[in-house]
Specification:
The protein is α/β, with parallel strands linked by helices. The chain is built from 25 helices and eleven strands.
Length: 677
């Protein structure tokens, strides 16, 4: 940029946004070098051949990009682990294990170092490891669990033949680590007002929201050309999370909105509430359940996690109330007592206590992209790891095994529900849920391989029972519903009944995908999150924008499920109605999406549905402002599940050219009240 003009010029050149953009550009280029494909490099497009080789997959197969994203995610996660220092000043992962020098000098680095690190060390309790991984450099590495390093079917791990057919060149790793070695990494999680000039865990979200958009067929072309701005900006995430939690807390506690605003502000220290009000806030947060039905890499759930921790730091500084709640939810008495002793003796782990409780009880996510769900889990794991207290002299270096998040972040189709069960098997359904809820609760912190495997088998057995029920119904229909001489149903109605049962059976069969990372064909709260009894206090999302021509296969099902159905409606319309149906009474829904439903013909049903059934709190229309490349003409709406009332709706039409970084303050100054009629 030439000669430095003044201090502001220096600061702009060294801002964290500049660093993040440069970093993402280099990571994205490394991704393309590995997986292949075209991408914008500065002002021109480049074609990359791709150096990765996968078994039985031709170059260009989507599995190449998914494998690359998963590998990069694990590598950056491990890089952050190197920055976590013990009481004796030793890193959580040995410094020399991950480096450009190690990649150049080892030979077959992926198979010789990374596969043992991922699948035989981080994923295996120390006492269960092979002898060679209980000594030397691997002996220092703690067991983490949590599914992040469990071999995925598409990791091509476990067969001798994969060593010759799965190839990642050592030179690629050397170049990739050289990029990481150039930057300053920190394990401190930056907020919107506390920003270090470094790569922090929050940066993971930006990287992977962009990369995930590139491997999504609907967004691939525009994301590839966006060069790093294909994500929900941090300040927009913070605003949406803050406003959602504020409305929820005001409704549940009756505390003045101004005082709640102070609680949610990173700039205001401590709580100015009475002890009674502090207790009300803790109780409300204990009851809060929040879901993102299109979670991507987890931007909104992670934003909620940070904000809830902030509030708990203020209203429950010694974490006594939150700890009691956390311990009460650990069913195993031995594990509960071990956790109690550890947390009560290590006061610098209060944030770990808060985060574990929030992840266990409060946040949920669903996404159709398997790799997106994996990255969302990774961000949760990293958020917990940064607050662990590493003590070299203790077992597993004092690292608590990470929880299992298969029933917190689920790969499923959020918009398709399982067909309603018939009344005749209601008793069986109730028994099913009672058993399933207990198994899922136990599974969350079942880190022993044997116990984890047993719980999975018992959950799958319950699912198999549901499939057998459908088989019984199908046999009865087939025996009573066909002509004896011809293999044809007697009536169209009978044919439809048979098709519906076959579909329900297929959906149930897909449920077991929850353990292998592939999408489940449906989503139903009772079947995935049975501890959520009465709906969610907050539903928050950036629903995908997919044109109606690309969703033809689902239209018949959408027509049966959604009042807002219109044959020409784009996909995000159905996410609105789905979100409202996930809400608890008084719950808050906050979405950022295209504003086309404001005025388009296909949005008429949605407009009438929202205006006639819910209390609208805020509407923001960004027009053609470049908030981010994911949405053309973005908008934000905040509504509450309450009967419509003559209330004031805060509205804002964004002025082109205004700085989006100042969104919150601009909205506070210029929003215009309108009456909901």
């Amino acid at each position: 940029k030439g000669r430095v003009k003044d201090f502001e010029d220096v600061r702009s050149r060294f801002s964290v946004e500049v660093v993040n953009k440069e970093f993402y550009g280099e990571i994205a280029r490394a991704f393309s070098c590995l997986a292949g494909g075209r991408r914008m490099v500065k002002s021109h497009e480049e074609e990359f051949a791709g150096v990765l080789k996968l078994p039985s997959k031709a170059p260009g197969d989507p599995k190449y990009k998914e494998f690359s994203v998963r590998l990069i995610g694990r590598l950056i996660f491990c890089w952050f682990l190197k920055k976590k220092i013990s009481n004796n000043g030793r890193p959580l992962l040995p410094e020399g294990l991950l480096s450009s020098d190690a990649a150049r000098s080892t030979g077959d680095y992926y198979h010789e170092v990374l596969e043992p690190l991922f699948f035989k060390t981080l994923n295996t309790p120390i006492d269960d490891r092979d002898a060679e991984f209980r000594k030397g450099v691997f002996a220092e590495i703690p067991f983490l669990n949590g599914g992040l390093f469990e071999p995925h079917p598409d990791d091509y791990y476990g067969k001798p033949s994969y060593r010759n057919t799965l190839k990642v060149p050592d030179e690629w790793f050397a170049d990739f680590f050289a990029i990481l070695e150039t930057y300053n990494f920190t394990i401190d999680e930056n907020t919107t007002i506390d920003v270090d000039l470094s790569i922090d865990p929050e940066m993971l979200g930006r990287i992977f929201e962009n990369l995930l958009a590139e491997i999504n067929p609907e967004t691939e072309e525009t994301a590839r050309k966006a060069t790093g701005s294909y994500y929900t900006p941090r300040n927009i995430v913070d605003y949406m999370v803050t406003e959602s939690l504020k409305q929820y807390l005001v409704t549940r506690t009756g505390i003045d909105a101004g005082l709640v605003t102070d609680l949610l502000s990173f700039e205001m220290e401590g709580s100015s509430l009475s002890e009674d009000d502090n207790r009300k806030v803790v109780a409300a947060l204990e009851e809060l359940r929040i879901i993102d039905p299109a979670c991507g890499s987890g931007a909104f759930p992670m934003g909620v996690l940070q904000k809830m921790v902030l509030v708990l730091q203020k209203v429950d500084p010694d974490s006594k109330r939150w700890l009691a709640s956390l311990l009460s939810n650990i069913p195993d008495t031995t594990a509960r007592e071990m956790m109690r002793r550890k947390l009560e003796n290590e006061h610098d782990m209060w944030d770990y206590t808060r985060k574990l409780g929030i992840i266990r009880k409060s946040i949920y996510g669903v996404d159709i992209q398997p790799i997106a769900v994996e990255i969302a889990k990774l961000r949760c794991f990293l958020s917990l790891i940064v607050d662990e207290n590493v003590i070299d002299e203790k077992d597993n270096r004092n690292i608590e095994a990470l929880p299992n998040l298969e029933f917190k972040f689920v790969c499923a189709n959020s918009l398709v529900d399982v067909p309603e069960e018939g009344q005749q098997d209601g008793l069986l359904v109730d028994e099913y849920f009672e058993k399933m809820e207990g198994l899922i609760r136990d599974y969350f912190q079942a880190w022993q391989p044997g116990k984890k495997k047993d719980l999975r088998a018992r959950i799958e057995a319950l699912v198999d029972a549901r499939v057998k029920e459908k088989d019984t119904v199908l046999r009865n229909l087939m025996s009573a519903g066909f002509h004896s001489k011809h293999a044809l149903p007697k009536t169209k109605k009978k044919q439809q009944e048979i098709e519906d049962v076959l579909r329900a059976r297929s959906l149930w069969q897909s449920y077991k995908n929850i353990f292998n990372g592939e999408p489940v064909g449906f989503f139903n709260v009772r079947y995935f999150f049975p501890d959520v009894k009465d709906g969610f206090g907050v539903v928050i999302a950036n629903p995908p924008y997919v044109r109606q021509e690309q969703i033809k296969e689902f239209k018949r099902h959408f027509q049966a499920l959604y009042d807002c159905y219109t044959g020409t409606a784009d996909l995000y319309v159905y996410f609105y109605e789905r979100g409202t149906k996930l809400l608890a009474d008084g719950g808050v829904m906050t979405y950022i999406s295209s504003n086309k439903y404001f005025r388009s013909a296909y949005g008429e049903h949605l407009r009438n549905y929202l205006a006639s059934k819910f209390t609208i709190r805020q509407v923001v229309d960004f027009g053609d402002a470049p908030v981010f490349n994911a949405i053309a003409y973005p908008s934000i709406i905040i509504l509450q599940k309450k009967d419509p009332e003559r209330s004031t709706v805060k509205t804002l039409n964004w002025v082109p050219g205004e700085n989006i970084d100042s969104f919150a303050s601009v909205f506070a100054e210029r929003c215009r009240p309108m009456e909901q009629k």
